[in-house]
Amino acid sequence: MATTPWTIRLSRHGAALGLLLVMFCLTGIESPLMAESTRGLAVPMAGQNAPNAGTGQADGISKPNEQNTNAMAQNPILWTDVPDNSAIRVGDTYYMSSTTMHMNPGLPIMKSKDLVSWRIVNYAYDILGNTDALALRDRKGEYGRGSWASSLRYHNGTFYVTTFSGTTGKTYIFKTKDIEKGPWALSAFEPALHDHSLFFDDDGRVYMTTGSGNIKLVELKDDVSGIKSGGVNQVIIPNASLVAGPNVGLPAEGSQIHKINGKYYVFLITWPKGSMRTELVFRADKITGPYEGRVALRDQGVAQGSIIDTPQGKWYAFLFQDHGAVGRTPCLVPITWEDGWPVMGVDGKAPQTLDIPISDGGMDGIVASDEFERPATLLADLRKASGGENDYIRSAFPGQWQWNHNPDNRFWSLTQRSGWLRLTTGRIDASLVEARNTLTQRTFGPECSGDIAMDVSNMKDGDFAGLAAFQKHYGFVGVKISGNARSIVMVSAESGTPVVVEGVPFEQTAVCVKIEMDFKNRADKAHFYYSLDGLRWKPIGKALKMAYTLPHFMGYRFALFNFATKSTGGFVDFDYFRVENKLAGTD
């Protein structure tokens, strides 16, 4: 009988090691030991000596004059989907929150020491609630909704991160003494204050700026648990969009309020018709106004976010840029101060090269490979868990992973087969976007690939399992069961309706599949492959033209999935997920 990587696990079992290595060599199969070097892959940031980085610049972000691009960080600082950032500095450490909408756990907290190399250290919540939409029980879900723009603050030894949800109609305030470990205490109240920004004034009063077009100031209770009865609740900046011109498209929103040298500054984003995303700034001597405003930056659509200073006294705007199918990517823009106004950019432009040395951290704190091996103590904790639908142990997965909507914790396991992730079907679904327990990570540029190995011996008739390039117009490569027959399929929903583009029959119970994505110069193409031995890759189907769509409102994700179309109870074991920052094709 032919030996495969799934019948003998060399990297996890030491017995007869020499003999087994010979068997792997004779059968032409890659041993797990040979693959060990791919674990813990450090993925470069954009511009950090990544393959083809020189041809995959950030779509028009201005090139600097006579700067050493081999030594300094580049925009976008993270070539991946990290929008609506709110950033703070505590001592010499920076923290940032961002938007991940319908993905859980939600409201990610990231940490950096240099503003360019970031890693996810926590989430504010496991699930936002247990409604049918949040849990995808209504077959429609909350795609593009969930929790939106957040506000991150540090005040009197306590960290606060806030968000709001159009799905639930509420505003959420999370607070903790330990931002990296929690626990978080939650206050939630109605209504949902759109694109708000939390602010603690010097006199002890607490506010949120909020709104779209007309920007309001809403006073909160002293304990930040809700809106203060009889407190300030008024428009402070009417028709804020008009500062950028009379042809209003997207009304001004995304407020971030700061107090600097005694003055109040409110930063907003707007999008005039026929123009681009534009950053605005307003200032006043009193928090209630009157405010005067101006355009802070109108270049390449770089806008919306925070401003932040370094311990050395430098200032930056921490904004984002629409970057095609990969999503909205964070950019740093230097700030100088003139007559009390923040002046963003270099000669009014967002520079491609920054005055910050490149970090060695790469981007593996945001996207990373996973062999699904866990410490014995964690496995013991998982075995003790009650196993109900909403019983989740966050430490089961590194922070790079998020579930699409609320997971159903009865139907995934890291303990039923140690060293593997098992996804079991728990209901009937018509397509991938309806399915629960889809596990995701971000994709990234300028190019990336992800591959998995699966044991499909326990799938049932009508089941689909595999790896997806996940957005509304998704594509996936995986296994389909029809009766007692197995086939490797490439499915494309580029047209809006999923179609099996190609199917290849096969008999064995183990298969590897791979997706490669090219985001250089907004090519936004995904290519699909399979392998029956883990070494030789064959293309399947056709390239997917990826498209960022507002119904999902986020960049493409790698997604591991297993869903049933006829009967429940089939399961798939995933051996690993491995990610790289290059395209290898059939090599």
Q: What is the compact description of this entry?
A:
This protein is mainly beta. It is 3% helix and 40% strand.
Kindly list the characteristics that best describe this protein.
587 residues, mainly beta, 8-stranded antiparallel sheet, globular
Describe the structure.
- By secondary structure, the protein is mainly beta.
- Helix content is 3%, strand content 40%.
- It contains 2 helices and 38 strands.
- The strands form 8 sheets. It has an 8-stranded antiparallel beta sheet, with no helix packed on it.
- A hairpin with a 2-residue loop joins strand 30 and strand 31.
- It starts with 16 loop residues before the first helix and ends in a 7-residue tail after the last strand.
